[in-house]
Structure formats: C-alpha cells, structure tokens
C-alpha cells in the first residue's frame, strides 16, 4: 500500500495522457479506480471489482465518482487486480532458458553454476537464440541435443510447441507497488524476475499491461521442477503495478512487444545491480502466449499473464562464483517508460504482511456496501 505523491512518482511520464485501472483502499473498503486525464475516479458504482470493470470496457469516466487528481488522492494503493487468475509464462527468453538448465544441472547449488554456465553457453547458447519454438528446425535441434546428452525439460518448453504456463499466485494474493515482497526464509539462491504482464478479459482479449515481479527461488526449483509451486507461490511473492495501463491511442500491444525493461537492485550494504531487457528478444509473441493459456481453459474473471523474463542475475554479490541472491532490505525497481516503475522491498515471506483478505472477505465487504449487482 502507499499514499499519494510517492505513488504518483512511479507512474510513466505521460500518465496524464493515458488511461489506467487500479485499486485503492478507501475507508469503506477496496475500490476499483479508473485514472483518466490525471483524475482518479471511483468506479465501484459501475462495477464493484476490477475484474467486472474490465468486462465493461470501454469505460466512461463520467459514470464514476471523481476523487480528484491522482497525485493528491489520500488513499492506500493496492495491487491493481483482484479476481483475475494470476498466470505466468516461463523460459520465454534464451538467457533465462539457459539459466534454468544451469539450475537443473547444478541441482540448486549456486557454487556449481559458474562452471556449468560456461559449458552450457558454449554448446547450446547460439542454437537456442536462433531457433523458432515449435519449428522443424527446433525439433531437429532437440534430436541433436538428446544425442549429446544435453536435453532438458526447460529446453522442451523453450523450443518445443508448448509454452510453459503456470499459476503463480492465488486470486487476491498479489501485492502492489511500494509493498514488501517475500522470499522463503530457507532459500539461499533467489532473485527477482522483472516482467511485463498482460491483463486479459474473460473473452481472451488483452486489454492492457503492467509490470510484475515473479519472485523466483533458484535453489528450490533447481532441485526439481516438481517443486515449482514451492519456489513460486509464497506469501507476498508476486507483485504487480503500479497500475494497469489500458490499450488506447497512446499505448498498444506493439508497445509491449517493443518494451525496454530496466532492473535496479539496491542492497542495504551498498550493493547495486543493474540490468536491461528488451521484449524484442522474447521467443514467443505475447498474443501467442495468451492463446496458449486459453487453448483448453476458460477464465470467466479474466487473468493476468506474466510474459517471462530475460533476467537471471549472475553478478557475484558475496563469494566469487556464487552469483546473486537477495538479502532482506533489498529495494527492487523494475521500470519501463510506458508503464512506469514497480518498486518493492525484500523481506522473508514469514515477515511479510500476512494475506488475510480472500474472496469471501471481499464479497462480505462489497455486500455490506450495497455494491453487489450494481450496474452503470
């Protein structure tokens, strides 16, 4: 949660010219917000949740209640989504693909990563970067790598016909900008995963985008891919924000495809790590990832879709050759010009604010406010 001026500083430079969805905690309860022309509008009288509000696009701001300029709004900002399912894609960039293979072969032991990284990069790196997933060439590469004993389950989803799509967090469990993000207290090798995240409506149309941090535990997933749930879904392990930027004349899916994403990690001991990622390097088109998510499933409340990350930080932090891992107190800033900045501070999942407001609590609040069944 956050207040006004500090939150407004996270928004893109042209935020007064865009249209955004979000949620704030008002005294009466969590409230869906539309931001247009720099003004925040309470849209709870149009639809009580962001999920329902999305189904009413395009929105007329005049149907809401003007709360005033966003940068003067005295309210706590929440994660910008509510009932949407939180889906995520893995190994959609060559660099992160190779790092997953390294984790697997190191069995989650960071001390072995440096040697394995050099060997894998030399043998596989160029091929992975050039092949089109699911193509005839990709199948031929797979056969060669199997013959060489270099095949991996991560390479299967990197260059095979099916993308990796998994459920990152329970509904309503995400945290927003300026909140704490959590890593398991028993993890010794972990990192942020800065990503662009699509918001998709119930009909399968991508309607906007935001930034996300798919906090990752490399040691736990590296031991076994069957531990993905333990590595990915922990208290406060998924952040989204600062707001959902809706697609319009100022922002489109092509802006997502061409986004340049920056990462900054500032440690309490003075450590600093910077990274840069280009969405142009993604191996599968964002809308193809949406299609695969929907191939044999429905999402009546919509979903968010993390598009994957290029980042898997390898810069040493403490011992040479052991690479990067988080420390409590790290400040993680993910940014891109059209979506703004997502800033979170790292704590352990045990120390993060407990998640206590689930679907039942939300609907009890909405019922008490007389918002259920409302229509514009």
From TrEMBL:
Residues 202-347 form the Fumarylacetoacetase-like C-terminal domain. SUPFAM superfamilies: FAH. It comes from the Bacteria. Keywords: Hydrolase, Metal-binding. Coiled coil: none annotated. InterPro entries: FAH, Fumarylacetoacetase-like_C, Fumarylacetoacetase_C_sf. One of its GO terms (biological process) is small molecule metabolic process. Belongs to the FAH family. This is Fumarylacetoacetate (FAA) hydrolase family protein.
């Amino acid at each position: 949660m956050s207040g006004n001026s500090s939150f407004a500083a996270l928004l893109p430079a042209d935020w007064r010219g865009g249209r955004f969805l979000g949620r704030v905690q008002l005294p009466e309860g969590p409230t869906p917000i539309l931001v247009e022309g720099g003004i925040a509008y309470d849209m709870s009288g149009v639809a009580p949740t962001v999920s329902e509000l999305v189904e009413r696009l395009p929105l007329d701001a005049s149907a809401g209640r003007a709360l005033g300029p966003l940068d003067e709004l005295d309210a706590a900002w929440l994660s910008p989504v509510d009932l949407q399912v939180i889906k995520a894609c893995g190994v959609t960039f060559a660099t992160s693909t190779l790092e997953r293979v390294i984790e697997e072969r190191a069995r989650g032991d960071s001390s072995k990563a440096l040697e394995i990284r050099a060997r894998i990069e030399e043998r596989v790196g160029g091929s992975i970067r050039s092949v089109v997933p699911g193509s005839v060439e990709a199948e031929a590469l797979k056969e060669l790598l199997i013959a060489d004993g270099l095949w991996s389950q991560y390479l299967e989803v990197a260059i095979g016909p099916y993308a990796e799509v998994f459920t990152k967090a329970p509904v309503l469990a995400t945290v927003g900008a300026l909140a704490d993000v959590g890593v398991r207290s028993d993890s010794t090798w972990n990192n942020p995963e800065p990503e662009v995240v699509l918001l998709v409506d119930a009909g399968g149309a991508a309607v906007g985008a935001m930034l996300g941090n798919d906090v990752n535990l490399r040691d736990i997933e590296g031991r076994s891919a069957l531990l993905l749930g333990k590595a990915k879904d922990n208290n406060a392990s998924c952040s989204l924000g600062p707001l959902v930027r809706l697609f319009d004349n100022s922002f489109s899916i092509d802006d997502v495809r061409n986004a340049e994403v920056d990462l900054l990690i500032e440690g309490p001991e003075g450590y600093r790590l910077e990274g840069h990622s280009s969405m142009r390097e993604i191996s599968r088109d964002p809308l193809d990832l949406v299609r695969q998510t929907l191939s044999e499933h429905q999402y009546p409340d919509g979903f968010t879709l993390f598009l994957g990350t290029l980042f898997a930080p390898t810069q040493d932090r403490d011992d040479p050759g052991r690479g990067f891992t988080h420390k409590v107190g790290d400040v993680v800033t993910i940014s891109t010009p059209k979506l703004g900045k997502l800033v979170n501070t790292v704590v352990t999942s045990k120390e993060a604010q407990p998640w206590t407001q689930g679907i039942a609590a939300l609907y009890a609040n909405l019922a008490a406010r007389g918002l259920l069944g409302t229509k514009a």
